[in-house]
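Thread amino acids onto this structure.
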């Protein structure tokens, strides 16, 4: 019994060490060319995701709890990936809702509609019906969807994907320099690389 307890304890210690000490190549990749080392204590974290991605849906509950505990100097944002087709359509709708202040309210509803209710939401007509059911002002929404602001946000998302080399989702990016692999320790590794970013700025 004591031997079993020792094995379990050592396993827990090794897991904690692994989570707190991410390795390049194993847990994350460096983004090249690397941006200049920043200053101050503000760090940006971006999660690239798609509503149709089951891995994104599975990560999201833990991610939402993690975001609630972030210190004020860590600025987090969801960034819909633009891989073409329905992904681009969802991204533009996401940005329109974001501009309207409705994105956070409907974020979980998007995942539920696609993965639990099995709604495809692959056309604007289907998305409009979904949004109307969820109390969105559709006149305001359509005006926002076709706005210059939304197009600018979509263009920026596509540019960041190219800059960061995002080819799969979910993908966490810290400080524009660390592209973190989607492992069971992704949030712990993100914490560690946030701290590494701040430590490197002090050198």
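Threaded sequence (203 positions):
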């Amino acid at each position: 019994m004591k031997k079993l307890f020792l094995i379990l304890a050592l396993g827990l210690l090794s897991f904690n060490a692994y989570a707190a000490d991410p390795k390049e190549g194993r847990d994350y990749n460096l983004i090249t060319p690397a941006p200049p080392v920043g200053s101050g204590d503000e760090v940006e974290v971006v999660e690239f995701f798609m509503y149709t991605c089951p891995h994104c849906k599975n990560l999201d509950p833990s991610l939402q709890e993690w975001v609630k505990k972030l210190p004020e100097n860590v600025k987090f944002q969801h960034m819909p990936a633009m891989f073409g087709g329905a992904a681009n359509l969802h991204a533009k709708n996401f940005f329109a809702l974001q501009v309207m202040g409705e994105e956070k309210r409907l974020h979980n509803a998007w995942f539920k509609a696609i993965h639990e209710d099995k709604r495809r939401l692959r056309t604007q007509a289907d998305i409009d019906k979904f949004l109307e059911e969820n109390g969105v002002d559709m006149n305001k929404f359509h005006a926002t969807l076709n706005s210059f602001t939304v197009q600018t946000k979509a263009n920026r998302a596509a540019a960041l994907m190219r800059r960061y080399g995002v080819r799969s989702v979910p993908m966490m990016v810290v400080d524009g320099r660390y592209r973190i692999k989607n492992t069971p320790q992704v949030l712990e590794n993100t914490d560690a690389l946030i701290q590494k970013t701040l430590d490197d700025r002090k050198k």
